[in-house]
């Protein structure tokens, strides 16, 4: 196929290996390295937490199978935006892209950058005592904003990381993909080496799995598990990643489904192994509320020096996720602008580097704003609910594909697999709303605000 055969200025250069790396890099990021300690604070039971990670992995695999069929039939940039616009109505596609604009990519970029600073600060606490904000004027601003000097420095380092990778990915997809492949490979090796060494020579105990107190499986417990699963599904988000670059995939009918299934399958195994490592290293009570859980686990198993080294490695592993999100998000905004339902300037492709550079820069600016004004816990809750809505609607589209005879590749498991994903996704949203109605309502409001915005762009 001609590299420019898609006719939209983007080139079909991505094969199975870089596509699978994009999926893995999007999934393995801040979520798995930061949420397990936060989950334990609510669950108080290691066995329940591990079971929820297994359930989340099965849901993600059902989603990947469904998206493989969607991506093969609709191999265009934009993910849910492309699917919903073509299968149902342009407004649904726009709302999916609207949520992606603020929540789907910019917010995970911010979370990855914040996770990076948490781990690098655990390794080098002295970096939080640099006198950048030492002047009386700077201190008065920090006091007015109720921000400590340490918090301000963490935000600064996160912003610098976002700026560096935003610039990198305006230089072209091939350079970005090479960096992405390297970072992803290093991240997988890090997890494998960490888990292997932990169980081989670490001084932990699997009795931590049963050391927890009893868990209440009443309605309150189900609400807690629903919210926990929502956070876990955020950690698994990215199982649909290669669908977002459909216009740049070689032989999409073959490579898109395979990359989704391979990438998701690898990550499910890595996540279960890594959570077992955490539980083996740290008693449930010691895990509760700890963000940089990987560093704590390494310190418990191997000593303080290992904690420092691992914190450094994880901080740079988070670069891989940050980088992958910066690759994918702008393709959604580009696709929306190209269809005339977003700012037209974002449809411009850089003639030299063949990437939507304006969309990349705008996404970076939004991520910087989120770093400045949001905390990790706030962003995780808001993202988890917002990102759960439109993949459900997209998977419903599999039924429409089959009925209309438009499926290019009929993947196994139909209709059970998409039905499982839809039922699980709706259940998680309902339980999460009941547990956290305020934040969930804000997420719903974000979606609804997109309706008048869509009507505005349609009139232009």
Structural description of this entry:
The protein is mainly α and 460 residues long. Helices cover 74% and strands 0% of the residues. The protein is built from 18 helices and no strands. The protein has helices at 16-27, 30-43, 46-73, 80-87, 90-104, 106-123, 136-144, 149-169, 173-201, 219-236, 252-281, 284-287, 293-302, 304-338, 357-373, 376-404, 416-435, 437-459. α3 crosses α16 (376-404) and α8 (149-169) crosses α14 (304-338). The chain is globular and about 55 Å long. The two termini are 35 Å apart.
Keywords:
460 residues, mainly alpha, 0% strand
- Which percent range fits the helix content? over 70%
Q: Calculate Rg over CA atoms.
A: 21 Å
- The termini sit apart by 35 Å
Model regions low in confidence, pLDDT < 50 over at least 5 residues = 1-5
- Biggest β-sheet, characterized? none
Helical run tally = 18
Shape assignment: globular
Structural class by helix and strand composition: mainly alpha
The beta-strand count equals 0
N-to-C SSE series? HHHHHHHHHHHHHHHHHH
Beta-strand level of the residues, as a percent range? under 5%
Overall mean pLDDT stands at 83
Summed up:
The chain is mostly helical. The protein contains 18 helices and no strands.
């Amino acid at each position: 196929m001609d590299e420019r055969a898609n006719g939209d200025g983007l080139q079909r250069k991505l094969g199975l290996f870089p596509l699978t790396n994009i999926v893995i890099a999007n999934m393995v990021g801040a979520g798995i390295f930061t949420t397990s300690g936060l989950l334990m604070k609510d669950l108080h039971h290691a066995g329940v937490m591990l079971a929820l990670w297994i359930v989340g992995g099965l849901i993600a695999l059902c989603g990947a199978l469904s998206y493989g069929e969607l991506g093969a039939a609709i191999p265009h940039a934009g993910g849910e935006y492309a699917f919903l616009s073509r299968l149902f109505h342009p407004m649904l596609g726009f709302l999916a892209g609207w949520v992606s604009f603020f929540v789907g990519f910019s917010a995970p970029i911010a979370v990855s950058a914040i996770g990076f600073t948490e781990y690098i600060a655990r390794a080098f606490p002295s970096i939080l005592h640099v006198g950048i904000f030492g002047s009386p004027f700077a201190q008065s601003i920090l006091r007015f904003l109720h921000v400590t000097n340490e918090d301000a420095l963490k935000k600064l380092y996160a912003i610098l990381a976002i700026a560096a990778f935003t610039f990198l990915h305006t230089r072209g997809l091939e350079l970005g993909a090479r960096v992405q492949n390297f970072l992803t490979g290093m991240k997988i090796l890090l997890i494998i080496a960490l888990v292997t060494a932990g169980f081989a020579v670490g001084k932990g105990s699997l009795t931590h799995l049963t050391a927890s107190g009893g868990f209440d499986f009443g309605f309150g417990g189900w609400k807690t598990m629903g919210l926990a699963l929502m956070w876990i599904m955020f950690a698994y988000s990215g199982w649909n990643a290669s669908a977002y670059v459909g216009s740049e995939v070689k032989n999409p009918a073959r490579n898109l489904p395979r990359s989704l299934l391979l990438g998701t399958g690898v990550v499910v195994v890595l996540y279960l192994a890594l959570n077992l490592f955490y539980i083996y290293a740290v008693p449930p009570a010691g895990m509760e509320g700890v963000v940089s859980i990987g560093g704590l686990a390494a310190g418990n198993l191997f000593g303080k020096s290992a904690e420092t080294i691992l914190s450094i490695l994880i901080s740079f592993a988070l670069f891989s996720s940050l980088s992958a999100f910066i690759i994918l998000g702008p393709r959604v905004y580009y696709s929306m602008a190209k269809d005339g339902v977003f700012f037209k300037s974002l449809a411009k492709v850089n003639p030299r580097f063949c990437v939507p550079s304006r969309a990349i820069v705008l996404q970076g600016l939004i991520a910087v704003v989120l770093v400045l004004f949001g905390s990790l816990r706030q962003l995780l809750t808001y993202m988890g609910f917002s990102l759960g809505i439109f993949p459900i609607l997209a998977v419903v589209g599999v039924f429409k594909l089959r009925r209309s005879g438009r499926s290019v590749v009929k993947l196994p498991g139909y209709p059970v697999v998409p039905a499982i994903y839809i039922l699980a996704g709706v259940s998680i949203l309902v339980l999460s709303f009941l547990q956290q109605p305020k934040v969930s309502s804000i997420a719903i409001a974000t979606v609804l605000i997109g309706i008048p915005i869509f009507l505005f762009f349609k009139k232009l």
